[in-house]
Design brief:
The protein has about 210 residues and is α/β, with parallel strands linked by helices. About 45% of the residues lie in helices and about 25% in strands. It has helices at about 10-20, 50-65, 80-95, 110-115, 135-140, 150-170, 175-185, 190-200; strands spanning about 5, 25-35, 40-45, 70-75, 95-105, 120, 125-130, 190. Strands 1, 2, 3, 4, 5, 6, 7 and 8 form an 8-stranded mixed β-sheet that branches.
């Protein structure tokens, strides 16, 4: 299995391209009612994990019933923890059968979303990327003087991100070597074959490694 290391430059160029594309498509949904009485929803998610995409995806998952099928295709550079949480709750509570496919790229929050899908596949050459949260600092870089409240908000986001990555490790998405690289501040990427193979494993009972 190949192990890939993504450079900061490649991530920056990719996420900049996502942010700079006009218009940003984000989420498109097509519904196909079946003669048998259920509906197949094809949800194409391209763009950031934000309030808009979280609302669109959650709406489909919440409205679909237990006979319905949701096919979610993900190609995203990630986004906010708050909006990821909204998606994860909808994913957990949906009555529909959900199939997810990573199409090219799922990073950060999008990688965690993909991993929490009940069924996961990936197109050839797709990559999942997890990395230390850095965008929290960018949110306040041009917001004037950092107050204690802003510093607390940044700290809280970083802690939540670390907890999510620990859960990622426990569910088999990362091995110990990769987790060590994460704690050291490096970006870790896994190719499509490895993504699918790891997702099929049962949850790991390993003890959390010491930082």
């Amino acid at each position: 299995m190949r192990k890939l290391t993504a450079t900061f430059l490649s991530i920056f160029l990719y996420t900049s391209a996502l942010a700079g594309s006009t218009p940003q498509k984000e989420v498109t949904t097509s519904a196909y009612p079946q003669e048998e009485g259920y509906t197949i929803y094809d949800v194409n998610f391209e763009g950031p994990v934000n309030s808009s995409s979280a609302t669109a995806i959650s709406l489909v998952l919440n409205e679909a019933n237990e006979q319905d099928i949701v096919r979610l295709t993900i190609n995203s550079g990630g986004g906010t923890i708050k909006d990821l949480h909204t998606m994860l709750i909808a994913m957990k509570d949906t009555k529909a059968t959900v199939f997810c496919t990573i199409d090219e790229f799922a990073a950060s929050a999008a990688a965690i979303l993909a991993w929490n899908c009940p069924s996961l596949t990936a197109t050839p050459k797709s990559v999942v990327l997890y990395h230390k949260v850095a965008t929290s600092f960018l949110e306040f870089m041009f917001a004037g003087r950092l107050t204690s409240n802003k510093i607390d908000e940044i700290s809280s986001k970083l802690k939540v991100a670390d907890i999510l990555l620990y859960t990622f490790y426990l569910k088999g998405a990362m091995n110990t070597e990769e987790l060590d690289r994460y704690w050291a501040g490096h970006d870790v990427a896994v190719d499509a074959d490895e993504i699918v193979e790891r997702h099929s494993r049962p949850e790991r009972p390993d003890r959390l490694p010491r930082r």
